[in-house]
Structures are given as C-alpha cells and as structure tokens.
Write a structure and sequence with these properties.
The protein is built from 20 helices and two strands. With 488 residues, it is an all-alpha fold.
Length: 488
Amino acid sequence: MSSEWSILIPYMMLAAGGLVIFCAGISKRGGATLYFAMALASVLGAVVFELSRAPAEIGFRGMIDAGAYAGFFVVLICLIALATLLFSFRYAQLRGIAGDEFYALILFAALGMALAAGALNWIIFFLGMELLSISLYILIGSARDDRKANEAALKYFVMGSVASGFLVFGIALLFAATGSLDIAASLGKAISAENTPVALLGLGLIAAGIGFKVSLVPFHLWTPDVYQGAPAPVTAFLSTGSKVALFSALLRFSLVMSGQLFGYLAPLLWGVAALTMAVGNVTALAQTSLKRLLAYSSIAQMGYVLMALLSVKQSGAQAVMFYLAVYAVMDLGAFGTVALLSAANADLDSTASCRGLGYAHPWASAMLAVCLLSLAGLPPTAGFIGKIIIFKSVLQAGFIGLAIIGIITAIVSVYFYLNVVVCLFMRAPEVPYAVPYAVPYAVPYAVPEPGKLGAVLSAGMMAVVFFLGIFPSPLLSVIESALFSLRG
C-alpha cells in the first residue's frame, strides 16, 4: 500500500468497523454484544496503528496532516470513543438501544472528529464536521421512545444545521477572497488579499459556526437542553470528542495565521472567552439538574480553553492541548458516572438524587467526586495543573484582565462542584438507597449496580486524573513533540 493511502489506515479502520457493524445488523447476524465487540476492536485497531506508525509530514495530496500533531488528537479521540463504548455497554442494553446503529454511529462520529482534527483543506474539515454532526444527531435521538431525547435531537439538528450554514458560507467567502482551499494558504493570504473585508467576513462566519459546535457564548443556548435530553453516554461523547476535535482545528488555524490577522480577531476572542467563563459558571449555580449543571460547566471549561488560545502566539498552544486532554478525562468521568448509575427508565439527573449515593455506590460516586474536584481546579488533580498552565500562559501574553476574570469565575465554580460532592457523601437521601453494608440509610431503592466494569472504569478514570495532576511531565513532553512537528 502506498504511503498516500497508508496514512489513512486509522480512519479506514473506523469507517470499516462502522460499515461491518451496519452490514451485520442488516443481515441479522450477531447481537448487541457482537456489535459492541466489533466497535471495540475497530477503535483499538485505529489506536494501535496510529501509535505504531512513523509520522509523516502531510499526506493524501496535502489535504490531511499525517504528523505527530494530528496523531495526538486522533489517538485522543479514539480513546474518548473507547471510553464511550465502555460506558455505553450496560446503559445501552438497559435502554434497549444497543443495536448496530448505536455502535456504528459512535465509530462514524469518531471518524468525523479525527478528520476535522487532521484536516489541512477546508473541504476535508467540512466533511469531518458534517460526518460527526449527522452521526450525533441520530445518536442523541437513539432512545426513540424517550420524548426528551427526541426533543434534544431536534434542537441539536436545527442548531447544527444553522452552524453548518455559517461554516460553509464562511469557507466560500474565504475561498472567494484568497482563491485557495488550503487552510494554511488561505489564512496566510486573508489579510493581504485585495478582498480583505470579504475574507474577514468569511472568517467571522467560520468562527460563528465553530462557536455553535463548541458551545461558546452567545452560541451556547442549545447546550443544556441537548445534554439533559440525550442518553448519558452520548452526552459524554458529545461534550468531549466534538470539542476536542474542533479546538484542535482552532489551534491549528491560530498557529498558521499571521500575527496581523490574529490581532484583528483577538478582541473578539477576548470578549467571547470572558462571557463564556462568566455565563457558564454563574448559570450553573442555579441548576438543580446534574446534567444541566455539567452542561454549563462544559460551557465554562470551553471559555478557559479559548482564553488559552488567545496566548497561542506566546506559550498557549501547549496549554490548550494539555487542557483538552485533561478536560476529556474529567468530563467523560462525570457523565460516565451518570451513565453507570442510570436506571432503565431515566438518567440520574436531579442533584437531589445524588444525596447519600456515596454509601450505595462508593466507587462510582468517588469517580464523580474526583472529576468534579478536577473540573473545579483543586489540587492534586489534573484540572489544577491544567488551569495553572492556562493562567500562566495568559499572564505571559499580557491578558491580565482576562486572567482575573478567569480566576474569579473559577472560584465561583467551586461552590456548585462541591455542592454535588457534599450531596454524595454528606447528605441523607430523600429516598434512601440499598447499600452493600450497614449504614444509617439502608432502605431499598432502585439504583442499578454498576458492576465490575463500572468499578474498573471508575478506578481507571480516578487514576488518570491523579496521575496527570501529580506527574504531568510525560503528557507535556508528548505535546511539545507534537507542536514541534507542526511548527517545523
């Protein structure tokens, strides 16, 4: 196989896995466990090949990045898909959605995310965006008998369609102004082109389209409704994978932009970052739904990443990549706990339903607590190190006012994160839980047992959060190598 095609093997593994699962479903061969196993094998194969191959510079006629930068995000996205599959196994069977389409669409969404992260051409980037979006539209509504899931799917479809319209029109304007669909070339020519206003309008529309997808204020209004209505594992995938993929693309755009063009965009990014951090954290204070609270938390976290993106011309690139990896672990762990502890008829949603849950399911509750403390940025978790790196880069870039806003909003966020932790371990439940040993609240309640897989996932997530909080150097070294390959 030529090198032009060999670099596509991780992508082809994801695509082939999805197609094989669909074919097996159409032919009525196998069941949910087989579909799950095939999806798992496809994702693991993509990860193994990506890690084992020697990175090239670019490939497929200069349209896809085959270097270490794209490889870092392809592996991260595949690991997110792997964790989503594991969190989905029991949940999907309980809900009756563990069919071929559920597992295949997770693979296709991961493929779209990987293409968006590795795209060097606007057409490839748009195709990746649409593939992940269409897959997620269906996944969100996969619980067809659930009216909330149907409403969430419709809302995400409408808002996603609007975002896609902004994006494709922006790409068309940028192409008209620069005459190139190559991302680096078009962004390099944008400010020197004769049609500079047209190019800037195109960039503004592209930024708006991506802003919808990553829930930046004021494009965030769909987020809490969709996160609350979607099945919990799908919410975990949506809140992590799509944002990692699109911010990896935004980081690439920022690095190849000229300093003058980035200067035009900096005031806009400053305002959006400040609003996103403030609105996300302040609105989360009033939430009584755990999934809506995590949705506003996710909005706020994207504000911190955008703040780091502002300092990309100094030292912010490393901060963006490190925090995206850490955020993926934290948010997957939080929403994964919701999936593990959700019953067949409803997700664990109300914060009141978390009261005393630590007695009934200590491992899963501990994972949720650790992930929330990490999202709050408390030591010795990975979130603490991530926020330290972000604020350091922002201060070095001279955005002192924005850093102050970020610190204040981070302090505000500690309240609603700790409130959930207190409910887990320090409040008697309104309807007591069945517990495996004698405690004051031992009365039967229908909270499902996460099982051995849930315990292993909980222990693994907590280990990663603490390891990256205490030993961040290995990941930072990998990130530095990836950035060197991109800049070089």
